[in-house]
Amino acid sequence: MNRSCFLFIIALTVIVSCSQGNKTKVPKSTNDATIIGKLEYPYKFEYEGNPLSRMHSATDPDVQVWDGVVWMYCGQDRNVDSTKHKHHYDAMDGYHVFSSKDMVNWTDHGEIFHSSDVPWAWEKGGFLWAPGSARKDGKYYLYYPIKDKEGKWQIGVATGDSPKGPFIDTGRPIEGLSGIDPKVFIDDDGQAYIYNNPGVVAKLKPNMIELAEEARKIEYAPRDTMENDTLRFLEGAYMHKNNGVYYFSYTNWKNKTFQGYYAVADNPYGPFEWKGAMAPKPQGAQDHHSIVEFKGQWYYFYHIAIKDLPEYKESQGRIACFDKLFYNEDGTIRMVEHTR
Known about the structure:
Elements: H1 3-20, H2 33-38, E1 43-46, E2 59-66, E3 69-75, E4 95-100, E5 105-113, E6 132-136, E7 139-147, E8 153-160, E9 168-169, E10 183-186, E11 192-196, E12 200-203, E13 216-217, H3 223-226, E14 235-242, E15 245-251, E16 258-265, E17 273-280, E18 290-294, E19 297-306, E20 317-325
Antiparallel strand pairs: 1-5, 2-3, 3-4, 4-5, 6-7, 7-8, 8-9, 10-11, 11-12, 12-13, 14-15, 15-16, 16-17, 18-19, 19-20
């Protein structure tokens, strides 16, 4: 090989390496702490089938599509420090955000918010459960449930100028709203609504951090369904809109066969016509979903729990997945098929 050919090959190798950035090729799952410790954010990886990311827990996916990019906000399961928490759910902390322009090439932008960023939260940390997110007038909003210093669940808001943060807490919870699992839906006219456990909805003021009205209960099904332990709303309120129809959906984690349910209406408040199940019980976890359209295809995001996630040996680590979602001609939703 002559000198010029050798130098060309070296130069080409450098160019390819630089173009890949920190897109490290790692196993689909690993227990090697040395690999985990070497991950640098933003961390780039390719989707190779569910679960989406194999390197750390990514729970309760709240998903948005902004300017042709999919953004997925997730919580994280943590192992329990018995001096601070009794259950691994109590130890949940540290939101991550992922993004993709094609549903194949993904970027984990790292931790964007932590309980230590909330001055009014429980002093031992944790209890940072399922997030919600929104964008309005160029500003980004992160909604989060957390226990305050008195041990009461509250909904806080943090704001940022970019979907990947940094997010700064507003300094106080939303007055008139408690519970968990906030979901913000912005209608075509720009009006924002917040949905929350225990199955309530309220308009938000234009500032996106205060209620514009008292939260009201959602009538999503006949009374016998709303009183049935394995069919009624238990958590994970979600709202999306398709062809002018409002789809209110939720999770019932007590049902051992189906856990994602939905109802439809012609307005964000209802009353809704209950349609029944749309998704089966996920592996090892409760259904907690988001539904979004991206490039003409609808997707159903949820999480499963697997035992071989690194650093999660005391309990299963929940991790995000997604599958395609389809509508029938009458607007009803076909049963989602989970894939692995």
